[in-house]
Structures are given as C-alpha cells and as structure tokens.
C-alpha cells in the first residue's frame, strides 16, 4: 500500500492503524479507549467535576470496570485508582439495592428495575464521541485518492463500514469505495460458505487456507475487532 499522506497527528495515528492487520477504525478506537482510561487513572480519580459526572452516570459499565483494572496493572498504579473509583460506584449501587430491598409491592419492582438499569458509562460515551470524530475525519481524508484506495481495500468491520457509509458523500468516488467493500464482503461470504461445505469428515482435506481463514475474518467483520480491545 502506498504511504498515506498525513497533515496532523490524527492523520498519522490513522495511517499507523491502516498499516496494521484488521479493522483500522477498531484499532484506533481501542487506542483512544486505552488512552482515555490512562488519563482517568492518572488525572481524574480525585477530580471533582469528573467524579460528579461519574456519580450521575452511576459508574462504569461491566466491561470497563475490568478494563480499568487491567489498565492500572499495565501502568503499575498499584490499583489504588480503580479502588477509589469502584468504592464511589459501589456506594451508589448499594443505596439502590438497599432501597429495593426495603420496598414492597409495585414499588419494589420499580426499585429493582431502576437498579438493573445499565450505567451511562463515561468511558463508553467518550469512545462513541471519539469514534464519530474519527469516522468523519476519515471520510474527509478520502478526498485524496491514496486515502480513498486505502479505505476501499481496508478490512473494515461491519459496524465501521456502516458508520462510514452513513457519513460518506453522494459522489461517484465514494460509491466506488462502497462497491469495493461490498465486493470484499461477497468474497468473504463465498469463502465461508466453501469452508462450511467442505467441513464434513470426508471433505476436510479439500479446505484451502483462504477458506480456513474465513472464520476469523467473519468474526472480525461481524463482531468488530474487540479481540484487540482492553486488556489485550
């Protein structure tokens, strides 16, 4: 692939993501996710405005609870930061469970339902915001033919392909990018179908390497590249 022209730090990060295997937007999302968690642990554990927002959000989602522990371990933080943040989250959730326990009748059902409501995780919110910025920036970069060719050839996951399609302009050049991505999906579908058809005991010897690789490719396409996510 030709070297991608860059004009900013954001362009350079995207160019690095495109040089690596898998969905480049998933890779960029994971990098931003890790960076934001590191910032929380380094700067915001005792930050009053952040802690207020965290309380209003009712804490972190389950995946990011575990991810914060792993992030702190990678940074050799001694786990004090996560302990402080989880202690604050636990107090809020404990109040909810206590109120549900004390309630009766329909009030109890409502209290339990309220306590079961997922938190509005600030890390998830930041990742979504950063993802939107990255998608919009990448669409803008495709005005350059070199970037357009890179996007058309990339192993985009379905989530990010659709996000780009939602943001993309109604131009012949963009339509060509979508057409090449659609051809990639059809080719993967053919390989995966061949893998299935040749997986019986008497036909396994006919499976080719591209067909064998189709399962992992389909998992990355349909499930995003979350295997490259926090803690990995």
The residue fraction in helices comes out at: over 70%
For the report, how would you describe the main beta sheet?
none
Mean pLDDT over all positions: 93
- Coarse morphology: globular
Gap between N and C termini: 27 Å
Structural class: mainly alpha
Unreliable segments of 5+ consecutive residues: 227-232
- DSSP helix count? 11
| Rg over CA atoms | 22 Å
**Number of strand elements:** 0
Can you give keywords for this protein?
232 residues, 11 helices
List the helices and strands and how they pair.
Elements: H1 9-19, H2 24-44, H3 48-57, H4 62-74, H5 80-102, H6 105-116, H7 122-141, H8 145-153, H9 158-167, H10 172-197, H11 209-223
Helix pairs in contact: 1-2, 2-4, 2-7, 5-6, 7-9, 8-10, 10-11
Molecular structure report:
The structure is a single chain. The protein is an all-alpha fold. The protein has helices at 9-19, 24-44, 48-57, 62-74, 80-102, 105-116, 122-141, 145-153, 158-167, 172-197, 209-223. Helix 5 runs antiparallel to helix 6 (105-116) and helix 8 (145-153) packs parallel to helix 10. The model is unreliable at 227-232 (pLDDT under 50).
Task: Quickly describe the structure.
With 232 residues, the chain is an all-alpha fold. It has helices at 9-19, 24-44, 48-57, 62-74, 80-102, 105-116, 122-141, 145-153, 158-167, 172-197, 209-223.
């Amino acid at each position: 692939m030709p070297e991608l022209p860059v004009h900013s730090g954001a362009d350079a990060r995207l160019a690095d993501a495109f040089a690596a295997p898998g969905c480049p937007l998933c890779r960029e999302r994971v990098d931003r996710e890790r960076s934001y968690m590191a910032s929380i642990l380094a700067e915001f554990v005792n930050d009053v405005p952040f802690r207020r927002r965290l309380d209003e959000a009712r804490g972190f989602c389950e995946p990011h609870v575990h991810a914060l522990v792993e992030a702190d371990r990678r940074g050799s933080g001694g786990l004090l930061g996560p302990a402080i943040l989880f202690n604050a989250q636990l107090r809020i959730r404990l109040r909810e469970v206590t109120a549900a326990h004390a309630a009766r009748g329909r009030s109890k059902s409502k209290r339990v339902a309220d306590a079961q409501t997922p938190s509005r995780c600030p890390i998830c919110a930041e990742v979504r915001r950063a993802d939107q910025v990255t998608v919009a920036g990448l669409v803008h970069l495709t005005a350059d033919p070199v970037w357009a060719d890179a996007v058309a050839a990339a192993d985009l996951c379905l989530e990010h392909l659709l996000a780009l399609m939602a943001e993309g302009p109604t131009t012949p050049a963009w339509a060509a990018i979508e057409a090449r991505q659609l051809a990639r999906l059809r080719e993967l579908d053919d390989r995966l179908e061949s893998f299935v058809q040749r997986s019986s005991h008497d036909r396994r010897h006919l499976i080719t390497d591209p067909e064998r690789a189709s399962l992992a490719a389909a998992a990355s396409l349909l499930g995003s590249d979350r295997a490259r996510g926090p803690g990995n």
